[in-house]
Structure formats: C-alpha cells, structure tokens
Amino acid sequence: MTTAKFIEVLEGYEFCAFGDLLDTQAFISLERGTVHITSGDMDLDEEPPEDLEAGPYLALPDKSELRLGRELAIEFSEEHLPDDLSTVLGFFRNRGAYGKFKSFLERKGQLQAWFDHEKSAKESRLREWCADHGIELT
Q: From CA 130, how far away is CA 137, in angstroms rounded?
C-alpha cells in the first residue's frame, strides 16, 4: 500500500484544477507516495521524475472524475434550494453557468454554504479516490 500526505494530494489536485490549465497534470508515485506536477503551459520549479513515463505513477483525478462540477452544484441545489432547482438547472444549459450560479447563490445568501459544501465534497471525494486506489493518507 502507498502512503501519501493528504495535503500534497490536495495541493496537486487544486493546482491542476485552478484555471483548468490544459496541459497541467499531477501524478502520485505509487512507490514513494510523492506528488509531482507536469505542465506544458508553465515553467515549474521542480522537474518531474525521470521515470514518470515508465514508473509506477497514477494521475490524480480531475474535477469531472470526482463529480465536482455540474453534478455537485445540482446536488447542493437539491439540498439547499429545492424550490429553485429549475432555475439552477437552467443555468447549466448555457455557457457561463458557474458565474450565474454563484451570483444567484449570493443573492439567496447561500454562497458561503456553497463554498463549504464544495470544499467538503472535494476533500471527501479525493480521500475516497485515494482509498479506492490503495493510497493510505496521513
């Protein structure tokens, strides 16, 4: 079993998820439990390990794999704003959905509740993903 620091896994995930950089990816070493980030979009301080292509590494999941996008917003709305669910669903039929969704939540006084829900879901789903892949977290 691989042992990794949760904070490193979380930071690797968040770095890649921030701004949805197209050519940025985080990997976890299944031997050492270390997280490494590669990017074609930007220069990073750390060079990736030489064995990244051939060694035992696993790519960290993205937002969609963890169901942290549209699905999470709808889940939150079902729980916190059931009377407004059709409005929220309408946002996600068009471009700019998250901006409209967050503005709507702010008007409803639910923006902080959304941020808390999103953070909790991200952390618990990342922990679940690690457990599913035999990665023990410290």
A: 8
Question: What does the pLDDT average to over 76-100?
Answer: 97
Distance CA 31, CA 24 (A): 22
> pTM of the predicted model, to two decimals?
0.87
Choose among 77, 79, 50, 57: nearest CA to 12.
57
Phi, psi values for residue 3, rounded to 5°: -115, 130
Cα(94)–Cα(97) distance, rounded to whole angstroms? Answer: 6
Determine if residue 39 is left, alpha or beta; phi over 0 gives left, psi from -120 to 50 gives alpha, anything else beta. Answer: beta
Q: Which residue has the higher pLDDT, 18 or 15?
A: 15
Q: In whole angstroms, give the CA distance from residue 3 to residue 49.
A: 18
| Range with the poorest average pLDDT among 14-18, 47-51, 61-65, 123-127 | 47-51
